Amino acid sequence: MDKQPDIFRRPLVDVQGIPVFWSMAEEWSQVESFEARPDDLLIATYPKSGTTWVSEILDLIYNSGDAEKCKRDAIYNRVPFMELIVPGFSNGVEELKVMPSPRLVKTHLPVQLLPSSFWKNNCKMVYVARNAKDVAVSYYYFYQMAKLHPEPGTWQEFLDKFMTGRVAFGSWYDHVKGWWEKKKDYRILYLFYEDMKEDPKREIHKLLKFLERDLPEEVVNKILYHSSFDVMKKNPSANYTTAPKSDMDHSVSPFMRKGISGDWKNQFTVAQYERFEEDYEKKMKSSTVKFRSEI
Ligand code: PPS
Which residue among the candidates 108, 149, 175, 226 is catalytic per the annotation? Predict the structure, then answer.
């Protein structure tokens, strides 16, 4: 039976005011009661901020740079997307239940929706943030190719939705600010995509320190190589080309699209930029978190 018309391109549904995929909202009790383990490492991001990149780096670290071992399965199976529950398609909660420790767990949830077991267990968490304009652009192309999202509309229409938080996982502004605040009280390493672009080796060392792990320099260099954009783009275990075409159509826009900082300059008109910046100042002035929109 062809389930596609039922599953894809459906409107988002709110959970506590945050728009999410309809089936996640329906199955929210499963997410809420997710049982974290003390040795879980949570990878938390707003969508399109470097989740897959840092996931690949962390799996390489966990496997001491053994790139072949990291090709054992697709990234979405090695690092399950906890809250992604779509009938007949994916259930991150169930996948994680049967996964041996230590687990790498992916989430896009804003801080207030994270299952409480993560806080109770004092799990380590890596948060990756990326500047808003590049996220908006990346998200616009992702909406086009990944059919669990509603149709994005025109770029102008999508940008309006992004700025008002009416996109999957809600407001970018609240997400990055919320996690930034939380790191004062919990074991959260807050990284920036732009820093990773600028000096990925430095950021790998930050991850190693946070994980209290030590690896020989030649292994760090291997991790650096295998997690580079060009190598990951060609790696079917990292580039999402093994996901069903009904879900992700790479001919519309590849998952590994450009992997750069500052691509927003190719997308925003001057008027869009000016409006965006004015609104950004208002939304972000309450926070000390600072972004670079290019490097
Ligand atoms: S998702 O769907 O939310 O999990 O997407 P996410 O992985 O967070 O973000 C996808 C964007 O990250 C880029 N990417 C990389 N950039 C640099 N280096 C590496 N290794 C890398 N891997 C993924 C990917 O190309 C998406 O960004 P855009 O700007 O669309 O190219």
Answer: 108
Question: What tens digit of pLDDT does each residue of 233-263 get?
Answer: 999 999 999 999 999 999 999 999 999 999 9
Residue 250: active-site member: no
Determine whether the shortest distance from the Cβ of 263 to ligand 1 is under 6 A.
yes
CATH of 17-284, one of 3.40.50.1100, 3.40.50.300, 3.40.50.720, 3.40.50.790: 3.40.50.300
How are the residues of the chain apportioned to helix, strand and coil, as percentages rounded to the nearest 5?
A: 45, 10, 45
Report the separation in Å between the CA atom of 138 and the middle of ligand 1, taken as the mean of its atom positions.
8
Residue 1's pLDDT is: 45
pTM: 0.98
Q: Where are the domains of the chain?
A: 17-284
How far is it, in rounded angstroms, from Cα 19 to Cα 169? 6
In terms of Cβ atoms closer than 10 Å to its own Cβ (0-12, 13-18, 19+), residue 21 is buried
Helix ranges, the chain (H): 4-7, 22-26, 28-32, 51-62, 75-78, 92-97, 116-120, 132-145, 155-164, 172-182, 193-198, 200-210, 217-226, 229-234, 270-284
